[in-house]
Amino acid sequence: MELKDVEKLAELARIEMSSEEKANMLKDFKSILGYVDQIQSVDLSTNSSVEKLDKINIFREDVLSTSDSQEDKDPINTFVSIAPQKQDGYIKVKKILS
Amino acid sequence: MNLSELTIKKAMIGLSEKKFSARKLAEDCLKNIEERNKELNVFLEVFDDVLAQADVADKIISSGEANPLTGIPLAIKDNILIKGRKCSSASKILENYTASYDATVIKKLKDAGVIFMGRTNMDEFAMGSSTESSAFGPTKNPFDLSRVPGGSSGGSAVAVASGMALGALGSDTAGSIRQPAAFCGLVGMKPTYGAVSRYGLMALGSSIDQIGPITKTVEDAEIIFTAIAGADSLDATSVDVSPTEEFSWPSRPSLRSARAGENSSAGFTIGVPRDFLSEGVDPEVLKNFEESLEKLRAAGCKIIDISLPLVKYSLAVYYILMPAEASTNLARYDGMRFGFSAEAPNLLEVYKKTRGEGFGREVRRRIMLGTYVLSHGYYDAYYNKATAVRGQIKHEFEKVFEKVDLIATPTAPTPAFKLGEKIDPVSMYLSDIFTVPANIADLPAVSVPTGKNKDGLPLSFQLMASIGGESALFSTARILEKYLPAGDLS
Predict the structure, then answer these.
(1) Which residue ranges does the record assign to the Amidase domain (chain B) (predicted)?
(2) Beta-carbon neighbour count of residue B145 at 10 Å?
(3) B229-232: long-range contacts (C-beta < 8 A, 24 or more apart)?
(4) Distance CA B112, CA B69 (A)
(5) B100 and A28: CB-CB below 8 Å?
(6) Does the distance separating the beta carbons of A91 and B352 come in below 8 Å?
(7) Residues of A in contact with B315 (CB under 8 A)
(8) Is residue B370 scored above 90 in pLDDT?
(9) Rounded alpha-carbon distances, angstroms, from residue B415 to B168, B411, B452
(10) How do the domains of chain A map onto residue ranges?
(11) What was the ipTM of the complex prediction?
């Protein structure tokens, strides 16, 4: 891993960082990846019957339910009201296409 | 009242026999907060309506409608939502966020008539093992102010240890309940994955997180666990596990028959993974662990050596899966929907400045790490490999639980360490080495205080049970507790 990889990651993760912090991050990454790389030595061929975790996705209908919102009469307003910027019942964001 | 010795159970009796009121109990907690919160930095906010809550509880008690937790003052970790109150996960990015709904655990505790004292300090977004990564300064260990209380639920542990609340809720993704409980001489319990709803808990690692209690005694932990456990339609991973009912999981016949009897721990077989304990453990911790095993043996438990060759990889697996999940979960903090939003000329700059300024260093590090292990070209080597190893570790535990009822280790490799001692992230991460396997394998686990070292710092013993094995866990932990000196807190 090099400094340019850290810069790429910061861009992907949408995090602004000083160059000093990027240099420190690179050092930390080398140490952390050095530690976690030990899993590469685990031989998974001996027990191929247990390939993956038994976790499954659980889906539900995407419906607005007042019973789930704990007596909140106006859940949409509640949701919008906590946004940093809003207008006419909508969350306001900066222009996306320039 | 001496709140540092008052258990929830004793307070319940005192309240029901009208020896004292819920108001008096709350006032005494507030007095301790007044005296020591500034020095220890336990609460990020003490609620201004504590006495009003207590008066409501007193009315319920007078009307004869009380249940076990009515009027009991509890402290809540700052990542669990209480409707209408601030909740920040000890992060600048949520410093002024007010919760718009109750977490399911809070709803259950409100229905029980609990008094919420305030929200407790923690590592930012629960990322840490010392409470030092809080954006609002570290919490101090009441046994030695130069030491950490553990983390990430450090504030919750110190609130209970210093008599500011009778119990607390924490969350545990790698040991964040059990390790601070251990460092503060308390009982900390992480339920089976899914046993307690996470609806309204700020997500860290969604395939791993659990909410659980920090208390003075095993019995108190069981009281809170019973109140908050249960399946919830708002958390799709939740399931019904209750220590008082037959579990829905298949378990060993000896466990099932043992549940029927009162003295149920006698005859339990406890496995000790010796290989796992051979490196990096403080000699006093190890000596105390052996003495605790002897106590369990004397009480009729069978202690055998077991081998879990893959368990040592749990922490490495965790430091791939947790950052991956955290980087996904924390993508929601974009400065658009809620929380802090930085000023910038365009959308991309708003994102980057908001997240750069709003998140602390450890959070930024873990988001970056998660982004890396999930990125094209590294996904197979890290995320997929870690998921497969996790499956193997779970399988290894399942095999061992065919032979033993419980597994024992020390809770942490050392007692509470010094503030500022662990600068290198990996050395900090290693303090979770014994607690993280239960999270990786979805198992319930409890930490029980087992005396102190020569410097007066608490030591602790951890028991893990099979999935849904809360009953065996509690009954064995109670035996251990019975043979220990009563809680002589500082």
Answers:
(1) 26-473
(2) 10
(3) B229/B191, B229/B195, B229/B196, B230/B108, B230/B196, B230/B197, B231/B197, B232/B104, B232/B197, B232/B199
(4) 6
(5) no
(6) no
(7) 35
(8) yes
(9) 21, 9, 9
(10) 3-39
(11) 0.90
Chain A residue numbers with beta carbons less than 8 Å from the beta carbon of B317 are 39
Collect all residues with Cβ–Cβ distance below 8 Å to B342 and sequence separation of at least 6. Answer: B335, B350, B353, B354, B356, B357, B358
Question: Closest partner residue to A82 among B100, B353, B381, by Cβ?
Answer: B100
Q: CA A80 from chain center: how many Å?
A: 22
CA-based nearest residue to B151, from B426, B483, B428: B428
Best probe of the B interface among A15, A26, A40, by most B CBs < 10 A, is A15
Q: Could you tell me which chain B residue has the CA closest to the CA of A68?
A: B234
State the pLDDT at residue B245.
41
Q: End-to-end alpha-carbon separation of chain B, Å?
A: 16
Residues of chain A with pLDDT under 70: 46-55, 65-71, 98
Q: Indicate whether B400 pLDDT > 50.
A: yes
Least-confidence region, from A64-73, B324-333, B410-419: A64-73
Token pair of B325 as six digits: 């999940």
The pTM score is: 0.94
Residue type at B276 in one-letter notation: F
Q: What is the pLDDT of residue B250?
A: 34
Would strands B167-172 and B73-77 be described as parallel, antiparallel, or unpaired? parallel
Cα–Cα distances (Å) from B117 to B71, B82, B166, B489, in that order, read 11, 12, 10, 21
Domains in chain B: boundaries:
13-228
For chain A, state the CA radius of gyration: 23
**Rounded CA separation B184/B119 (Å):** 18
Class of the CATH domain delimited by A3-39: mainly alpha
Cis peptide before B152 (omega within 30 of 0): yes
Give the residue numbers of B annotated as catalytic, written as ranges. 77, 152, 176
Judged by CB atoms within 8 Å, which residues 63-82 of A form the interface with B? 68-70, 72, 78-79, 81-82
Q: Which of B97, B100, B390 sits opposite A78 (nearest CB)?
A: B100
Render pLDDT for A48-60 as a digit per residue (tens, 0 to 9). 555 555 667 788 8
Residues of A in contact with B207 (CB under 8 A): 53, 55
Residue B483: pLDDT band (50, 70, 90) is: confident
Mean pLDDT along residues B394-413? 96
How far away is chain B from the Cα of A92, in angstroms, using its nearest Cα?
8
Mean pLDDT of all residues in B6-22: 96
The whole-angstrom separation of Cα B436 and Cα A97 is 45
Question: Chain A 1-40, CB below 8 Å of chain B: which residues?
Answer: 5-6, 9-10, 12-17, 21, 25, 28-29, 31-32, 34-40
Q: A-B interface: how many C-beta pairs under 8 angstroms?
A: 143
